[in-house]
Amino acid sequence: MTQLTFVKTGSDWLHALQSSDSAWLVTDANLHTTQVNEGFTRMLGYSLEDMLGQPPLQKLLQIPGMPLPPHIQEALHSHGVFSGELQLYARDGSAIWVSATINAFNYQTGESGETFSEVLVLTDIGYTKRFEALQRQMLEDVVTEKPLDALLTNMCQALERLVPHVYVSVMHVDEQGIMNPLAAPSIPSHVLDLMRCVRIGADVGACGSAAFLGCEVIAENISEHPNWRSAASVFTQAGLHACWVSPIKNRDNRVVGTLAFYFDSPRSPNALHRQLVMACLHLCSIAIERDASKHRIQQLAYYDTLTHLPNRTMFNDGAAHALHAARGQTSLLFFLDLDRFKLWNDSLGHAAGDALLREIAERLRQCTRPDDVVGRLSSDEFAVLMPRCSPEQIPAFAQRMLEAISEPFAIHGVMTTPNACIGVCTSPEDGTDIETLLRHADQAMYAAKKQGCQRWERYQPEMGQLSLERAAMERALRAALTEGTLQLHYQPQVFSQGQPQQDGLYGVEALARWHHSQWGWVAPPRFIAVAEDSGLIHDLTRWLIDAVCGQLALWRAQGLQVPHVAVNLSTKNFHDPSFALQVQATLHKHGLVVQDLMLEITESVMLDSSPATLDNLSALHASGMRLSMDDFGTGYSSLSYLHRLPISELKLDKSFVHDVTTSAAAAALTRSVLNIANSLGMAVVAEGVETQAQADWLSEHGCQVLQGYLFAKPMSPDDLKAWTLP
Ligand code: C2E
Ligand code: MG
Ligand code: MG
């Protein structure tokens, strides 16, 4: 047994123990409680009066009159001390995990000779440990995009394990103030039914009123509380007697949900309940907000924000389904392109152009059947797939659409008559997959345009000849690559205001430029598409990376500070099994390292599961090469791959940047993208920044890097040099 000689008197050291934060208990020689400190009462709810004269462990372990567990007895007898984790029961019956140290003392008080006693020191660890595990699990669930209901159900169950006699529920509150259960694993379903589709209000239960008032609500006894009225008995019969609800608020302080503890007897929450709920509220808010942004992003990714029609991705999906369902019968695909839209847009302004596009979308909806699939493919291109029709119906349908479109329309007090051209093809005759059908309908539309405006044409196989133009472009591009007449321009990417390195250049993006003797400057999307279709993209990218590395090495030799160059890659590049090796070899050849390049890919690379793509991605990642997600927000925008794949940068597409200061949807999406990128440790580069207002908004919202005409257009290497040097 431990031999101790206390210099101080007994009352002195007991006084010192009183003020300790841990829970302490002291016994007399009969091992009956003589002292407890305030920490003990806080932790277990027992006062000194409750414990006085009682054997403490038997009471706290709820084994009255029984011997102590053998491992405790053994430790005390052999060593005079027990140290270990115990599950004790507090005064309210709840279980608490503690780290306990029990010292059996044999000491002298100075005046009265030798005395025995036990001193118990208890530290609450169970909650800490298990609560930490709960928090970790929730964060992991958020990052791995576990469905919101599953994530919250796990949380409720974990909380219920931590605090017995409590039933936990999480409700969702939508922007219209309608409440619905998100997770409530232990609340009987007939009780939950009362909580569905409930409008929040000052006197609506505890959840409804907490959501409405934006503050916690405690109903210590549901059967007596005015908010439950006739529903009280349903709750009490299900064993739910008291309720404590805290509102879950989002970043903008709007209530997006509630977290409720129901108790199986009338009572109010204790300090521990509060501690748990305080920490969970924040995680619930993150989880609910993330889920909302995911939905918003999906909505934005699949629907055109201007007309609310399905976008190209969604149209292709819907049309493919409709074609499949109508197999064996004829379907018609109409491809519409407005005449002179650019002219209207430029002369009357973008707002007028937008209004016209919305109107056209509405007119198309009106003149199609519910089963038809209507979509907006790009700025002034629309498509309509009509399943289960006959080719004889083509003239009537095409005419109806043309007439609907050409109804006069007033923009800003100016009356205009919109016109369009339509190309039509049929399935299965002209193709069975949506890509082929769109291509053929597009060719027919071009044929119609050649005839003038407000026309329609049906696809003829000879129209494929129209793609002769494309073949000519392919030949010319091949020649340009061999002759080395393609060029590269570079656009600076600068740190936004408030970033520590704000004076420095973050990097530059290399953009291919092609000048043809007859056609002049050919737009990159056009010749890149030809390169992709013809397979020339492999040569083009090989040339691109070599030219970029050569340029960077030259700049470095000239003392120019260019941190890295971003290069654009096509999905097809990843189909070349030697691609990753090639990039590394080129870097090596120019004496550069992986940090000197940033490879810009698009979301389609992420969706491509071909073995060559996966091998290339992992080889690039293994070499330390950084990948950037270009045009983020315009494709599938599935957030789930972001944390799985080695992406170190997101490039926010210029369409969002363009609208960020004028459209609430674009601003919300941008904020979500910035939040997600931040939490995944990725840099965000905003593309197409044209105005100071956009730059300010982006800087204020934490976007680190900006790129756009506001700072500089893409320029020749010499111009870039002049731009960089003061
Ligand atoms: P991207 O990679 O998203 O490149 C950004 C485009 O936005 C460039 O168009 C750039 O000139 C333009 N831009 C930059 N700042 C602004 C601005 O403030 N406002 C507006 N409205 N536009 C801005 P560009 O050069 O015509 O290239 C178009 C696309 O062609 C690129 O989009 C990229 O996807 C592709 N591309 C260009 N060069 C290459 C290349 O070498 N290889 C591959 N595979 N694709 C390339
Ligand atoms: Mg790019
Ligand atoms: Mg881009």
Describe this structure in words.
An eight-stranded mixed beta barrel has the order 20-21-23-24-25-26-27-28, surrounded by four helices. Strands 1, 2, 3, 4, 5 and 6 form a six-stranded mixed sheet that branches. It is elongated and about 110 Å long. It is α/β, with parallel strands linked by helices. The N terminus is likely disordered. The N and C termini lie far apart (80 Å). 42% of the residues lie in helices and 24% in strands. Bound molecules: ligand C2E and magnesium ion (2 copies). The site of one magnesium ion has 4 residues, from loops.
Would you spell out the secondary-structure blueprint of this structure?
Blueprint: E1 2-5, H1 10-18, E2 23-27, E3 33-36, H2 38-44, H3 48-51, H4 56-60, H5 70-79, E4 81-89, E5 95-108, E6 114-124, H6 126-143, H7 148-162, E7 166-173, E8 178-183, H8 189-193, E9 198-199, H9 207-213, E10 217-219, H10 232-237, E11 242-249, E12 255-263, H11 271-302, H12 312-325, E13 331-338, H13 341-348, H14 350-366, E14 373-378, E15 381-386, H15 394-405, E16 409-411, E17 414-416, E18 420-427, H16 434-451, E19 456-458, H17 468-483, E20 487-495, E21 505-516, E22 520-522, H18 524-534, H19 537-557, E23 565-568, H20 579-589, E24 597-601, H21 603-607, H22 611-622, E25 626-632, E26 647-652, H23 654-659, H24 664-679, E27 683-686, H25 692-700, E28 705-706, H26 717-724
Parallel strand pairs: 1-5, 18-19, 21-23, 23-24, 24-25, 25-26, 26-27, 27-28
Antiparallel strand pairs: 2-3, 2-6, 4-5, 5-6, 7-8, 7-12, 8-9, 10-11, 11-12, 13-15, 13-18, 14-15, 16-17, 20-21, 20-28, 21-22
Bound molecules: ligand C2E and magnesium ion (2 copies).
